[in-house]
Amino acid sequence: MENRPANSEAEENPSPSRTEAILDRLQLHPVQLKNILPRWKRTHYRAVLNWLTHYQPKPNGSNLDRVRNYLEAFRHLCEIEDWERARVVLFLRLDTPTGDELHKQLEVWGYYREQIELYESILGKGDLELDLTCLKGLGTAYSYLGDYQQAIACHQKHLQIARILGNRQSESIALGNLGLEYYYIGEYQRAIEYHERTLQLSREIGDRLGEGQALGNLGLAYHAMGDYQRAIAQHEKDLAIAREMNDRLGEGQALGNLGYAYYALHDYDRALNCERQYLEISREISFREGEGIALSNMGETYIRLDRYGDALAALQEALDIAREIGDRHGEAEGLKNLSELYQHLEEPQVALNYCQQALAIARGLGVPLAQECETLLKQLLK
Fold first, then answer.
1. pLDDT per residue over 163-222, tens digit each?
2. Which of 28, 166, 224, 367 is least surrounded by Cβ atoms within 10 Å, i.e. has the fewest?
């Protein structure tokens, strides 16, 4: 417990006026094609125009299908090393509930591998500000996929460039992301040190969203160290800031983290209330990871309330989401939770099978969850 699909409000069919506006930003129109040489370059530019003007996604396609035109246009522009136009596509702001740019929207939907492909295609092909965006995104994507050491390496490069540029907001973001990676691998005191630096820097530059995120991340670290009341205090401050800034994603995450803390204090009704709100917000904005976390947390809470049918439904859906988006930590967490459920249902062989799968993944990731799985395994083998 902690902190794309077909019915999102992604741009299924961009309006002609929006398409024309994108072509204007790209400074690319059909009348220009005949003047482009050599021919192989003209072929790629024609493909860009075709994808942007003629592509029609399937009515019930995935979110990835709905932005396939932009992804393919980006790929063709990279093939001809037109980095400036590729950059324009990367930063296109989409008409989605979160209103994110293309590269960030892929993260919200859980398409981490596609996100990595975009960043790696253009990293080092522009200015250092572009590299900041790519390194930040790469670090976050690798983290979601459970490659924490690779994530740390990206965030450290991000931090180094931010300091070279004197970009204090990017410096704050990099420090916060490093703190999260150390939290994930169980180095909680080190995580707290990074988050405290992030909090101080965010306040110095007046970054309210950054301040809220730092408070929430501190809350997670305090929770991991068993200081639940202090964790709740941080999460409540985070929640207040998220609502003040109309940050729906941040609001959902803060509610999820509060539910996580109330669960630890055995306040299950309050925990469920928070997690249901987190689930509702996550579905509203198509935040797949958040949806999976909320379901997982609800499932664990249902176990404690002896609501085993509800627990099974929630935990199985959470596991399906984790596997769908490639969230290895979430997958291990889901398998462990199912093991605990079948332990309560007195089906030891099923519980043992799930526990062994969870342990294998958690050991591979090198995360504290492995210790929880080992403890559970000993109980099951008695």
1. 999 999 999 999 999 999 999 999 999 999 999 999 999 999 999 999 999 999 999 999
2. 166
d(CA 116, CA 338): 31
Within 10 angstroms of residue 129's Cβ, the number of other Cβ atoms is 12
Contacts of 19 (CB under 8 A, 6+ apart): 52, 53
Distance, CA of 258 to CA of 264 (rounded, Å)? 10
The yes/no answer on whether domain 287-382 falls in CATH 3.30.1360.170 is no
Angle at 25 between CA 22 and CA 31, to 5 degrees: 80
User: Is the CB of residue 339 less than 8 Å from the CB of residue 374?
Assistant: no
Q: Are 133 and 103 in contact (CB under 8 A)?
A: yes
d(CA 288, CA 325): 8
Neighbouring CB atoms inside 10 A of 93's CB total 11
Mean pLDDT of the chain: 95
Cα–Cα distance between 304 and 63 in angstroms, integer?
35
- DSSP code string of 110-129: T-HHHHHHHHHHHTTSS-HH
Residue type for position 22? I
Q: Structural domain boundaries of the chain?
A: 4-125, 287-382
Which of 379, 250, 154 lies closest to 359 in space, CA to CA?
379
Residue 369 CA, chain-centre distance (Å), reads 19
255 contacts 278 by C-beta, under 8 angstroms: yes
Q: Is 266 left (phi over 0), alpha (psi -120 to 50) or beta?
A: left
In this prediction, residue 12 carries a pLDDT of: 47
| Cα within 13 Å of Cα(9), Cβ side | 10
- Residues of the chain by 3-state class (helix, strand, coil), percent to 5: 75, 0, 20
